[in-house]
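Protocol step 4 of 6: structure prediction from sequence.
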Amino acid sequence: MKPLEGVKIIDFTQAHAGSAATMLLSDFGAEVIKIERKGVGDLARYWEPIQNEQSGYYVYLNRGKKSISLNASTAEGKEILFKLIKDADVVCENFKYGSMERMGLSYETIKEINPSIIYASLNGFGQYGSMKNAIGLDLQLQAMSGMMDRTGFADGSPVKAGPALGDHISGQYLALAINLALVHRKKTGEGQTIDIAILDALFSVLETAQVTYDMTGSVPERSGNGVPFFAPYDAYKAKDGYVVISVSTEKQWESLCDVLDAKHLLEKYTNATTRWENEKELKKDLEEILQNKTKMEVETLLSDAGISVGAVRTPKEAMQCTPILEREMLATLEDAQLGNIQMPATVIKMDKTPGGFTQSAPDLGEHTKYYLEQIGYSKEEIRQLLDDGIIEGRA
């Protein structure tokens, strides 16, 4: 039995951030019912890669979920939603601020239907503050949070993290918050609202930049891949790509020079200070040695010597990485349109209640009929709702 079995989530999320949260909850047994706009559905359904009119992006973020497709702007559509929400545990949304209220689905309205509901919201700037009405997208939020100022090289422009880091991190915070609210409700019977801002999530992962500034009045300039006072600590060019090497002790430095047959560097760079002060020259010296070795050869050689090292892998190479495979971080899902597709498995490993998924993402409105029957609609009523354009799905 999975830990969240029996938890019902009415899921208005779409795109990445909110969907990542409910994906994690679904992996651990929650019944996640996506509410999708009739004729359109989740925005991620249109995101590459697409094959046979199916988005791999959408399938990854919505595996194991159910889909109801309806027109929520109609009285009939709202009535369906209210009936679904009446016995739900969680309502989850990541629309622009005020959208749920304009749809007649505010927390105050839903609380009247279900007093113990957990009402979870996620967007760029959260549910209060002067920018709550603004659109918040990943690049913008990485810039505003301080993340971009900490990423890149001192003599170059600020750089965003490659993936949509804010979306994914905020989604994990949302999933955690929902679980905390479920624990609180089990103890007290009380529901509550949850407010996650992507900007907050990104601001929280700057390590100690905020504390450093508060204590000293400044923070070090961007340092690329390096950190102050440690060298070698960077990405170094090998024969066929790059490898990162991190040396933090004299013993490690001696081992590095030994396995690379570069004892002359011990005489040239006698201590950590000389290595750091002459880091650019040190990098050239190391790359001259590494140019005849592949990045994987360097990784194996230095790893065996107890040195922190890692080849800079492409996504394809990462999918073949031994620790990734050993940790079962790749799972294969069968999808009707995509066939067998590999995607990241759940990060959380639990020996008694492991997570996982067996079903692909739902077609738009695939479960509309099923859930309407569950809340009391007859076959004739469902047929009429289909004919009237209120819902869509399999008859």
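Step 5 (inspection) to follow. The radius of gyration is 26 Å.
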